[in-house]
Amino acid sequence: MKFVFDLDGTIIFSGKPLSVSMTQALDQLIAGGNEVVFASARPIRDLLPVLPTYMHQYPMVGGNGAFVANGGRILSTIHFDEQTKESIIELIGKYKAGYLIDSEWDYAYAGDEHHPIRRNLDPEHRAENRRLEQLNELVKAVILHSEEPEQMLDELQQLPVVIHMHGSENIIDISPIGVSKWAGLQALGLQSQQFIAFGNDANDISMFEQANHSVCVGDHTDLLKVASEQVLADEGQVIKRIEQFANTWFY
């Protein structure tokens, strides 16, 4: 069976690397003949540092579906078209927004140096923090704060983009139209009803809707509507559930 895992808030917590105990639980799945796939809001660049080196070869979806990687290399990216790119940049200036903008590898960051996103950004210095105008293709945008946030959100919603709101962090996560975790998983060859998914947020809905079974970590209201079951947002409880699956024979 294929198991698809979101990262932050699902199998890693507080932005810390995958724990030894969680790593052992995933290894147990693999030892049982299953396959592990990661599907995160993080770009591949920021997904790698929280995983053991040998897991860098695993299939991955990053940027909520904008990045697809396997075997340790990025296979494809989806970026904003030029008009949408310019519109996003214009709105950033108009509303004096703080942001994290990702290209295929490098990024542009303008925000509080103590923001949680900044602390988790490229910790191994694999990429460069460039000026926004130096990024040729924009793959993903996160608005950290802005003046008149409701008005900015309203204008962003008029663009051909996919928006996810992360309420607890009060940020706006923007991807190109058509991007979703399920679209990324399809690019990796996954088929509907042929995998089990773990997630904790609205950006996991698309893959939960296609999963054979899905586990909501925590109590996200919208995700629970499409989840098969729920576990507490506690690492020990998540590990326990993974171990139960590891001891299950799948036909």
Automatic annotation (TrEMBL):
Pfam families recorded: Hydrolase_3
Q: Which GO terms describe its molecular function?
A: magnesium ion binding; phosphatase activity
Q: Which residues form a coiled coil?
A: none
Per the record, its GO cellular-component terms are:
cytosol
Indicate what this protein is called per its UniProt record.
Answer: HAD family phosphatase
